[in-house]
Amino acid sequence: MTAPLLEVTDLSVRFDTDDGPVHAVDRLSYTLAPGEVLGLVGESGCGKSVSALSLLGLLPPTATVTGTASFDGSDLLEVSTRQLRRIRGREISFVFQEPMTSLNPVFTVGKQISEVLRRHLDLSSREAQRRTIELLRLVRIPAPERRVEEYPHQLSGGMRQRVMIAMALACDPKILIADEPTTALDVTIQAGILDLMRDLRERLGTAIVLITHNLGVVADIADRVVVMYAGRKAEEAPVRELFANPQHPYTIGLLNAIPRLGEEGGNGRVRLQEIPGRVPSLSEPLDHCAFADRCPRADDLTRSHVPELERVGPEHLVACFHPGGEWRR
Amino acid sequence: MSYVEVARLSPAARRRRIIRRRFFRRPLAVIGLVVSLTFVTVAVFAPLIAPYSYKETDFNAILAHPSRQHLFGTDALGHDIFSQVVYGARASMEAGVLATLLALVVAVPIGLVAGYYRGWIDPVIARLTDALLAFPFLILAVGLAAILGPSLKNAILALGIGAVPQLIRIARGEALSLREEDYVRAAIANGASDLTILRRHVLPNMMSTIIVQATLLIPILIIGEATLSFLGLGVQPPATSWGVQLRAAQDYLFDAPRLAIYPGIAIVVATLAFNLFGDGLRDVLDPRTQR
Amino acid sequence: MGGFVLRKTGAALIVLLIASFFVFLGIRALPGDPAVALGGEDRNPQVVAQIRHDYGLDKPLPVQYARWLGHALRGDLGEDQRSLSVSHTIITKLPVTLELAGLSVLIAILIGIPTGVLAAVRRGKVTDYVSTTIGLIGLSVPHFWLGLMLIIVFSVNLQWLPAGDYVPIAHPLSNLEHMILPAIVLGTGFAAVLMRQMRSAMLESMGSDYVRTARAKGLSEWKVVGWHAFRNSLITVTTVIGLQLGALISGAVITEQIFGIAGFGRLTIESVQQRDYTLIQGIVLVAAAGYVLVNLAVDILYSVLNPRIRVSGRPT
User: What is the pTM of this model?
Assistant: First the structure.
């Protein structure tokens, strides 16, 4: 097995807010191999975005981050800001969720891309311009020579996202972190973006951490999946294994919740399966299983102890006292 | 309060607690509140606090330096400056608060109607307001005071009316954006009457912005009254306000600068206090300034 | 952008028209006979009748307004109590005030904008608290008091600067000597507002998503703050500048009074104290017109700075 590109160990993030502390991430660990696509899945607020932002030091000052994130011989969480700036955009890039607000409205799209090139690769303005147009072509934006001079508000949502991707890939990074890249887009555009990402991965060999709450997206392009709940890792498995053999009740609940066409039930219709209850408040690190309140398998054990990750198959980990079980396909 | 008790409070009461707690975490805002209340108290209880009546003159002590009998000294007519300042607080507080209330009472309904109903009345109100806003506030106030004649009452009127256009614009803006909120649309779809919607949904949600604006308007109008009186258009002697005192002080800048210093400091401190309070209030009520 | 400018200009003209109507009405709203008011204190019935005829006061209101407006557009604002041309008086006094205003704005920008940025960048630290408090104090200090204080300190005690009068710009050094204190007085309040607005705008843009993106791209903090954030904040602040200029005009009124500068502001006070209504009318009209025009200029500047207005969006 090749050495991992990124190794995250016991990552925890705590926010100090006006209303008290919030433990957004609790001892998260995972690895990323070169060229691999890792899906980071969970519902809103489960800490997946926060964990990714913490890797590049992009969290607000109210956040306290502990743990290690080993990349290229150094710990991302310990290096100086100067070194971090050399890594940002060059070795590890970020694609944000909202392309409209994530692009600066007063600068042209081309300017914002060439900015990265000139910063890290020290290109001249003409070279940077050339490369920018190339990048726009790479992400399949038609008429890139014209687009370069345009402002973000002149582009459609899908195109803006492509621009963000181009910006992220400009310096050929080893890792691309994509935070809900398709959530803000129409379903038809989504497919195009995912297609693009798959293609880019093939061509450039960039490792991708794909953060999403949409299992469909994960099934589409991920190699491995980490399922998060309430700031903790609930389950981890290669994608096929996860869909074939989910172990954690939360994962099972997620998969069951995917509506399917043409199902029959008592009176010809099937009610959408939901996971009852709500995500627990994160003001205290929980001393029991985070999912206990909503879990059909909850009992005294899960309500009083924290389940640790256990191996249930080759490369398949679950943090649960009562893993396993059937789910409707 | 225990967690259980807090949980039992209504959402409105809970929100008030949160706001109160956040407010008291800000020392500057609290100081502002305390000092503002002090000034209001001084204004209300002026006769009890001032050692001399503001009309009382002592011709033996003209332009006297501060002493035990006269804390801040005396002015050209033998008035005790400290008492003057204390009584001056009355006119200034009256002007600041009453003029603000006047402006609120007039501007908020108009702005509300314009922003909520739109239709034909909105452009009319908007254009009229814009036209009034074409006049710089003080010029407008001075103009109105000139028309109405010099007195405290007229100054309050002039200031209040002068503040109306800006307040209309704010109220209108709020009503306009609140109108598009989903819960308002839901209420309309459910057939609620306009009055009910305005009363239960629009007005309460505007309140925080309006309150902040009002609190920040008071210091502006305090300075406005002082300015008008300074120009001879507001309070007329022998009645006194800080502005009147400053007007008289002009002739004695070289000999007795304290005539100008004390009332001026009073204005600065009072204004600063209201500004700090209003600022703190705004920080606490506007969720966006949280970070 | 052409459409934008056209629309804004049109709106400004309409506003100006309505404002002129208010001005016109204002004088007519006075108690008593307008003919007496306009003509000064002379109660001679012949003179009053003459004034009535000259001003067309016997004609219906709309006709009066049209006549007045017609004259005004041609630059004739009538004659004041001393039979001097109002327009002429205003034109001679205006440049003084404009110079004062210009200096004040310069001071305000040079002080206010950098301090605001600094306060935002060093948010929560000592620099921020100090700047914000000084800024608040600057807001709370009434112009005339600051003027009086500065006179006391610099003219009375230190004898550095003169306390009044005005020296024409032909003698630049002496002119500056006389203008510097009043300009500081006016500029301070404006600087305080500018500082607060800049700080608040910077805080907002620094907390925005695109600044986060800029950081994620590995750009230096200078670039992120000074280029990405600042450029956006400038847009927000521009709107404020326009609004503040009204306060500047008001402040000029007091400041000129205190420093004995014979400018437009002092003219305003004199006219009010003398109840010279024709003069007041002309002054208020010019003040309003100036304000509207300046705001128009600011609106245009805004559209230049903000590409969303300048370039229309064409989503594909």
Answer: 0.79
